[in-house]
Amino acid sequence: MNADSVFFFKLLTAAILLATPLLLAALGELVVEKSGVLNLGVEGMMLIGALFGYIAAYNLQTITCLEELIPGFCQKEERVFTFGDYLIALLAAATAGALLAAVFGLLTQGLRANHVAVGLGLSILGAGLSNSLGSNFFGVNYTSVQVADHPEVFGQDALVWFSLCAVPAIWYVLQRTRLGLVIRAVGENHNSAYALGYRVARIRFYCILFGGAMAGLAGAFIVLVHVDWKEGVTVGKGWLALALILFGTWRPLRVLCGAYIFGLLWASELRLDNLFPAWQLEWKTLLTAAPYLFTIIVLVLISRNPRMIRQNAPASLGKPFNPPS
Q1: Torsion, Cα of 259, 85, 41, 203 (10° steps)
Q2: Is the pLDDT of residue 282 over 60?
Q3: pLDDT tens for residues 217-268?
Q4: How would you class 274 by CB atoms within 10 Å of its CB: exposed for 0-12, middle for 13-18, buried for 19 or more?
Q5: Which of 178, 177, 231 has the alpha carbon at shortest distance from 54?
Q6: H or E element in which residue 152 lies
Q7: Do the Cβ atoms of 147 and 54 come closer than 8 Å?
Q8: Distance, CA of 112 to CA of 119 (rounded, Å)
Q9: Which among 197, 232, 181, 237 has a CA at the least distance from the CA of 214?
Q10: pTM score, two decimals?
Q11: Can you tell me whether residue 71 is helix, strand or coil?
């Protein structure tokens, strides 16, 4: 394999890893929006998932030595981080994200609060809780803790394969199953769905929990695979996931393509920066901002075609549902 082939292989591998958390969060929110709910709290749920996934992984890797109480109880403070431990950490992250999403569900579906206001509050709550708990948990400075290498399947992280399998699975459920038909019916016209006997609030609540769990997994992937835990570790990926749904016009395959385009831009930034370290600061800044500039340009172009949005967006998206008494 020549140098160019190695470069492009590493670039593609990095793009896939960088795109995975974005894809996971966007797929979860896509299901939520298909049910007619607009949850802007993806960033907060990702941060909470990242924190609890990291805490679980750290505690599974580190054994508390009780030698002072029981002499010879343990010989070392660390053990091998297994695939089972990895799954437990992901489960903790998904549960944390789902619990925070449940707060959003109770407020919007139970108390019928405004989706946008509660979603923004959820992002602020998630950021505040993650920063507070993350910096004070048992006095551990998480920026200096290194989690063991993540388990891989065929050269890629297991969660990468899960995200890829989730794309056709979500498409199939939404388009080819009765469950998907019900979710889309609730999202298109909640009043008609309610008249047909469907429990709109309950269906939407379950979709919200699914979206929260996926956002939690996305946050955990960042801290278990990419970087250690630190303040604001998601660096706005939750907001990009929301933009990605509009970019993909609520279609899973397009969301996948959009996520990998973003991943490729991020990977190019890292690789080109290493290849050309003497580049001027202005060029490096432009590379760093490229994914976000691309997002703005795409959203502007899509917004100029409202017909495309009307054709694909759920008709009841973000609209309050008040069942007749």
Answers
A1: 90
A2: no
A3: 999 999 888 777 778 888 889 999 998 998 888 999 999 999 998 888 888 7
A4: exposed
A5: 231
A6: strand 152-153
A7: yes
A8: 13
A9: 237
A10: 0.86
A11: coil
